[in-house]
Automatic annotation (TrEMBL):
Domain of life: Bacteria
Domain MaoC-like residues, every copy: 28-132
Family matches, as CDD domains: NodN
Organism: Blastococcus aggregatus
Protein name in the entry: Acyl dehydratase
Top-level taxonomy: Bacteria, Bacillati, Actinomycetota, Actinomycetes, Geodermatophilales
Length: 166
């Protein structure tokens, strides 16, 4: 996976949507915010994720066996690996200023409709579903779809909940 510095070196824009403060965030409700850059899923990433999580299932970490025995024709990324890409991809889509900090508050309705083959390219798209102020900040629900380049079904769909604090 590329770092933000590598993306900047290629001259690509980091965020497609920029907004400031509670009112700015509320103004985004119902709007599609854009897409991240495409990211290639590598076998090395899949192996590192398997090592970190302990999920060493052969459909992920044994390319030869996966090519012969799996219904996917080769190794696939863990569904949770695709979900774990969001902290690096969401900032490419939206920049929110006027807050001292933000946290990932959770995810809702996560589904993995299509497997991601190793070597495939994925990107995230996001829509602001809701923005609810609370004392000291705002809670935001983003509807996120992870697309597979050339695919007909998404790799992942989820509602991701973030909180920003003033």
């Amino acid at each position: 996976m590329e770092s933000a510095n590598q993306t900047e070196e290629r001259g690509e824009q980091m965020a497609q949507t920029t907004v400031d403060g509670v009112e700015g965030v509320q103004g985004l409700v119902g709007q599609h915010l854009g897409h991240s850059d495409w990211v290639t899923i590598t076998q090395e990433q899949v192996q590192q994720f398997a090592d970190a999580t302990g999920d060493q299932q052969w459909i992920h970490v044994d390319p030869e066996r996966a090519a012969k025995e799996s219904p996917f024709g080769g190794p696939i990324a863990h569904g949770y690996l695709t979900l774990s890409l969001l902290p690096s991809l969401i900032p490419q889509i939206v920049t929110i200023t006027g807050f001292s900090m933000g946290v990932n508050y959770g995810t809702e309705k996560v589904r993995f409709p299509s497997p991601v083959p190793v070597g495939a390219r994925v990107r995230a798209g996001a829509t602001m579903e809701s923005a609810t102020p609370f004392a000291g900040g705002i809670a935001m629900n983003l509807a996120v779809t992870m697309e597979i380049e050339g695919g007909t079904k998404p790799a992942m769909v989820a509602t991701v909940v973030y909180r920003r604090y003033v």
